Amino acid sequence: MIGVGKIKQYSNVLDKPLSKGKQEVSLSAFAFLFSELVQYNQTQVDNIAELERRLEDAGYAVGARVLELLCHRDKGNRRETRLLGILSFVHSTVWKVLFGKVADSLEKGTEHEDEYMISEKELLVNRFISIPKDMGTFNCGAFVAGIVRGVLDSAGFPAVVTAHFVPVEGQQRPRTTILIKFAEEVLRREARLG
């Protein structure tokens, strides 16, 4: 037949290219699965700090895998080597893949040279979670902080990453800020690179 393209057959699933595929996951499915993750971990711990640590650990594994996928698919197996480059990559590319949009803001800390903040008005993981009064300081953003830490660690930028609520005047819900405090070795390497 003339005009009919040849369809390439793959003998093994590992031979298929990593295409972008469908970009969206049902929000209700994600909310249900994330709720189950939180509830399961809640039964395994005694306090809020331990629950947040477990959510951060789960996010860390996701972050490491997201970095590998994005570097392979979008960047030709190249990774960022500069501090501002990796922060921009997390703020824009990673955030867009995970949440469908770029993060609201990326800021450098004013008090410390090694601190950066990614802020989000309504972080997806906090959107459908109602926190009981006895767990007042609990922040599901710990999962996203774990994702960010996983991306940064896997890219060679070790950091302590935490999630915090920041009250906003005139709004009922506080915004979530992901605080990134880089290790001293990262700052020394960045100073050497100039």
From TrEMBL:
Gene3D superfamilies: Trafficking protein particle complex subunit 3. It is found in: Endoplasmic reticulum; Golgi apparatus, cis-Golgi network. Keywords: Endoplasmic reticulum, ER-Golgi transport, Golgi apparatus, Transport. One of its GO terms (biological process) is Golgi vesicle transport. SUPFAM superfamilies: Ligand-binding domain in the NO signalling and Golgi transport (SSF111126). The keyword Endoplasmic reticulum applies. Its main location: endoplasmic reticulum. The keyword Endoplasmic reticulum applies. GO terms for cellular component: endoplasmic reticulum; Golgi apparatus; TRAPP complex. InterPro entries: NO_sig/Golgi_transp_ligand-bd, TRAPP-I_su5, TRAPP_component. Belongs to the TRAPP small subunits family. BET3 subfamily. PANTHER family: 41-2 PROTEIN ANTIGEN-RELATED (PTHR20902), TRAFFICKING PROTEIN PARTICLE COMPLEX SUBUNIT 5 (PTHR20902:SF0). Part of the multisubunit TRAPP (transport protein particle) complex. This is Trafficking protein particle complex subunit. It comes from Citrus sinensis (Sweet orange). The lineage of its organism: Eukaryota, Viridiplantae, Streptophyta, Embryophyta, Tracheophyta.
